[in-house]
Design goal:
InterPro entries: LSM_dom_sf, MscS_channel_2nd. One of its GO terms (biological process) is transmembrane transport. Keywords: Membrane, Transmembrane, Transmembrane helix. Residues 343-363, 381-393 have a biased composition (Basic and acidic residues). By secondary structure, the protein is an alpha+beta fold. Helix content is 58%, strand content 14%. It is built from 12 helices and 10 strands. The strands form 3 sheets. The protein has a 5-stranded antiparallel sheet. It has a 3-stranded antiparallel sheet with strand order 8-10-9, with helices on one face. Strand 3 and strand 4 (207-214) form a beta hairpin. Helix 1 runs antiparallel to helix 2 and helix 2 runs antiparallel to helix 3. It is elongated. The chain starts with a strand and ends with a helix.
Length: 423
């Protein structure tokens, strides 16, 4: 380092600042020329203008501080000036690097539009880029802080002492930050496994909403009534949830109506066709009206229809339900649900018709009472005789009590099987 007078020092400083100003002007002109052909150059100019100028100013000051020193200032105080200039260069350089990296990420994201009907790929890329942006900023900040700390004298000795106790510290930090680290890795897993994406329609904790924000530690779900549900990212890796737009946004919805047995189902089906033909909410992929149940004095009619997304499907289901109710009230009142009751008078003192007593031989059973039962009994006896003959041949020591018990158990099993399949 050369020692100069104050006049020489300020002259050198002025030349350095003038050089930085000329460099800023040249770069500005070059970017404007590029902007005539490529639109991204203008966006780059707006994004990196301030950090680039700050970095050039810090470089100009640092070049002067590390090359010349006024003769009236000793070396010890001037080292602090050099340290400040070094910190300015590190900070402005990290700012410029982060701005350029974020610009590159935004430039790649601009190729995918999320305002289209089929935007599944765009939403996946947007989700992943949002996570990468946070990782980029965190990495740049960590590197900048590390470089700044290494600029201070004595940090090497501090780092050596920290590394010497790294084993104990790592165990303590792992235990203390277990939840934070699990959320961090869960955020990466959620972003790159394509389980959920931004604007996905999900059902979590019995609530319906959209994925509004995904971070490394939590996910924000915007519910249907504009409430926000904040869930840790580990929720989506450890708890089942519904994703209605996992592969596409088209959905199939159902409307169920309980009506009377006298309802005109073909007319109701024609009414559904009329309702769907008169609305733009239906995407014309599928429609059907079916009777799905008929118990308890009513019949249940289910109408199925499709829509382009969850919000449209909700409105379409409400419309179809309202129109079908109106049709029942005005066009087919016989189809309105009714509860029927029959009153029967009974005189307990009056004569009762005698019951015919069946003889035991007339009651049909599994193994008796008709030709089929007799045939099953004969088939069972023949199979049991063959089994006992084989058992005697293999084990002559079997006594009669053991045979009787085995015969009773086999008879029970055969009766159960034949009762299920009598043929």
């Amino acid at each position: 380092m050369v020692v100069y007078t104050w006049s020489t020092f300020f002259r050198t400083l002025g030349l350095a600042l003038a050089g930085a100003l000329v460099a800023v002007a040249l770069v500005h002109v070059v970017v404007l020329l590029l902007a005539r052909r490529w639109a991204w150059a203008q966006r780059l100019l707006r994004a990196a203008r301030l950090p680039f100028r700050s970095f050039l100013l810090a470089v100009a000051l640092g070049s002067v501080a590390f090359s010349v020193r006024p003769e009236q200032i000793t070396a010890a105080p001037w080292e602090w000036v050099q340290l400040g200039c070094r910190l300015l260069m590190i900070g402005s350089g990290a700012w410029l690097l982060a701005a350029v990296l974020l610009f590159v990420e935004d430039l790649g994201l601009a190729r995918y539009r999320t305002d289209l009907r089929d935007n599944r790929t765009a939403r996946r890329v947007k989700t992943q880029v949002s996570i990468i942006r946070r990782l980029t900023i965190a990495a740049v900040v960590v590197v900048a802080i590390g470089a700044a700390l290494l600029s201070f004298p004595g940090v090497e000795a501090l780092g050596a002492s920290v590394l010497a106790s790294a084993g104990v510290i790592s165990v303590v930090a792992a235990v203390a930050a277990q939840s934070t680290l699990s959320n961090l890795f869960a955020g990466l897993q959620v972003a790159f496994s394509d389980a959920i994406r931004l604007d996905d329609v999900v059902i979590v904790e019995d609530e319906w909403g959209w994925i509004e924000e995904i971070t490394l530690s939590y996910v924000v779900v915007r519910l249907w009534d504009d409430r926000r549900m904040v869930l840790p990212t580990t929720y989506f890796t450890s708890t089942p949830f519904q994703n209605w737009t996992r592969h596409n946004s088209e959905l199939l919805g159902a409307v169920e109506v309980d009506v009377d047995w006298r309802v005109d189902v073909p007319a109701m089906r024609r009414e559904l066709d009329r309702i769907l033909a008169g609305t733009e909410l239906w995407d014309q992929r599928a429609k059907v009206l079916q009777v799905t149940d008929a118990v308890g004095g009513i019949i249940r009619v289910r109408a199925l229809m499709t829509a382009v997304d969850a919000g449209t499907l909700f409105d379409l289901r409400c419309l179809v339900r309202e129109e079908l109710v109106t049709w029942l009230q005005t066009r087919d009142m016989d189809g309105l649900p009714r509860q029927r009751m029959e009153l029967v008078e009974h005189d307990p003192s009056g004569p009762r018709a005698p019951r015919v007593q069946e003889r035991e031989s007339e009651r049909p059973g599994v193994f008796s009472g008709d030709a089929a039962g007799d045939a099953r009994a004969a088939r069972f006896r023949r199979a049991e005789q063959e089994r006992r003959a084989d058992q005697r041949a293999t084990d002559p020591g079997v006594d009669e009590e053991t045979e009787a018990a085995a015969e009773a158990a086999a008879g029970g099993r055969a009766a159960d099987e034949l009762a299920d399949d009598p043929v």
